[in-house]
Specification:
Layout lengths: L1 E5 L5 E7 L11 E5 L1 E8 L5 E7 L3
Antiparallel strand pairs: 1-2, 2-3, 4-5
Length: about 60
């Protein structure tokens, strides 16, 4: 599935693809970045892992 992030005015800011059917560790399931990239992986207060995506342009 392709995820497109846009601003309040509907302008595309970045996009990336997520393989929702993969059975990996999360990092391998996200890729094909455009105007953004993988920043890091962290754990929330409930012990759940999440991935941070970083914008490349301001």
């Amino acid at each position: 599935m392709k995820i497109v992030i846009e601003d309040y005015n509907g302008n595309d800011i970045c996009s990336f693809k997520v393989n929702t059917f993969a059975d990996g560790n999360g990092v391998d399931d996200v890729g094909d970045f455009k105007d953004c990239n993988y920043a890091d992986m962290d754990e929330d207060d409930n012990g759940e892992l999440y991935i941070r995506i970083q914008l490349e342009k301001k």
